[in-house]
Design a protein that fits this description.
With 197 residues, the chain is of the alpha+beta class. The protein is built from two helices and ten strands; from the N terminus they run αββββββββββα. The protein is elongated. The termini are far apart. The protein binds 2-acetamido-2-deoxy-beta-D-glucopyranose (NAG) (2 copies). The site of one 2-acetamido-2-deoxy-beta-D-glucopyranose has 2 residues, from loops. Belongs to the heparin-binding growth factors family. Pfam families: FGF.
Length: 197
């Protein structure tokens, strides 16, 4: 009887060990695939061709292009779907996403899930980037010479007001290699990849 009991205990332990191993393995797999599908995150500034300053997202949810190089509100966190040209832009300091409302005004929003907060990046022949809203197609992010947002319903892709350059603060190189971004996002940033220092 003792032998049978021992044998059963042994089997039970074996079974538990297998369960534990499987569970662990599955968790690893989930974590891995989560990491692979994670959004890419980059931080940079958007330099406006017309104002000569940088797009910034302020604490009162206003968006303008009056930020000096290196200004705290000009630091933007840009989320990109893997290999996509659709981006979400938020102010690193305030956490507000840059969105567009139906009257064509740029507004900061705490949640950026909607298409009104997604922009399609279009790299133009002159190497400037235009940002077309995903919800209001044909409407672009644009700023006047003074850095005030232009009513998006009056914007066109070829207008200087809608042209931007991605720039790191002076003295910083812009890392443009996607694989490196994936590597960095996977190793440095938190599980959701959303909290960039
Ligand atoms: C759009 O945003 C502007 C600026 O914040 C605001 O004045 C206006 O009322 C908004 N329009 C709508 C329809 O939400
Ligand atoms: C755009 O950038 C590319 C690559 O850096 C360069 O070869 C090209 O001359 C630039 N075009 C203009 C119009 O500046």
């Amino acid at each position: 009887n003792m032998i049978i009991f021992s044998f059963l205990c042994f089997r039970l332990l074996q079974f538990l060990a297998l369960c534990f191993y499987t569970q662990h393995h599955v968790n690893e797999q989930c974590r891995l695939s989560d990491r692979m599908s994670r959004r890419l995150i980059r931080t940079y500034q958007l330099y406006s061709r017309t104002s000569g300053k940088h797009v910034q997202v302020l604490g009162n949810k206003k968006v303008n292009a009056m930020g000096d190089d290196g200004a705290v509100h000009a630091k933007l966190v840009v989320e990109t779907d893997t290999f996509g040209s659709r981006i979400r832009i938020k102010g690193a300091k305030t956490g507000y996403y840059i969105c567009m409302n139906k009257t064509g005004k740029l507004i900061g929003k705490r949640k950026g899930r909607g298409k009104d907060c997604i922009f399609t990046e279009i790299v133009l022949e002159n190497n400037y980037t235009a940002l077309q809203n995903a919800k209001y197609e044909g409407w672009y992010m644009a700023f006047t010479r003074k850095g005030r947002p232009r009513k998006a319903s009056r914007t066109k892709q070829h207008q200087r007001e809608a042209h931007f350059m991605k720039r790191q603060p002076k003295g910083h190189l812009l890392v443009n290699a996607p694989f490196l971004t994936i590597f960095l996002a996977g190793s440095l940033w938190g599980p959701k990849g959303s909290n960039v220092a």
